[in-house]
């Protein structure tokens, strides 16, 4: 497997293809036992778009749901490490179910992961393609977590957009506090008086 790992890391598709053609089961095996990474995880980790595109053609959609030893799908890696949007798009186009899969110890969905690590453009892309149902409170922490991440990064337009579409998030909890409490904390710490009036009026209206 070291040969395959090296070829992927060097973005050497001819060598990877030759290896896979002779050892097709390699696609389903961990390249490094300690990390649990599949060939696709490795290609995403190194940010090789063309390699990702080629590997995705070789595998069924369900393959993209495989988790590494840390609980990340390939999309989770793309969202939290490299921030290369075309790679994320390639993965999402193959299997959009990835957008709802919790990743890592915090069980964050990809869009929240991106905002948590500061990959804002990646986060905005993922938000644009993530179904609204993923954020609903009954489906767990992704919704409240995402709104809180938007406050941290200052992406208030996305927080506002989601809260307008899913008002039940106001009273959903994240880290022991409801979304409305997180809004109150943010208002008191960060906004000027003009912004404060706008948010107070909007929250009251909702």
TrEMBL record:
<feature type="repeat" description="ANK">
    <location>
        <begin position="35"/>
        <end position="57"/>
    </location>
</feature>
<keyword id="KW-0040">ANK repeat</keyword>
<dbReference type="InterPro" id="IPR036770">
    <property type="entry name" value="Ankyrin_rpt-contain_sf"/>
</dbReference>
<dbReference type="GO" id="GO:0005886">
    <property type="term" value="C:plasma membrane"/>
</dbReference>
<dbReference type="InterPro" id="IPR002110">
    <property type="entry name" value="Ankyrin_rpt"/>
</dbReference>
<dbReference type="Pfam" id="PF12796">
    <property type="entry name" value="Ank_2"/>
</dbReference>
<protein>
    <submittedName>
        <fullName>Uncharacterized protein</fullName>
    </submittedName>
</protein>
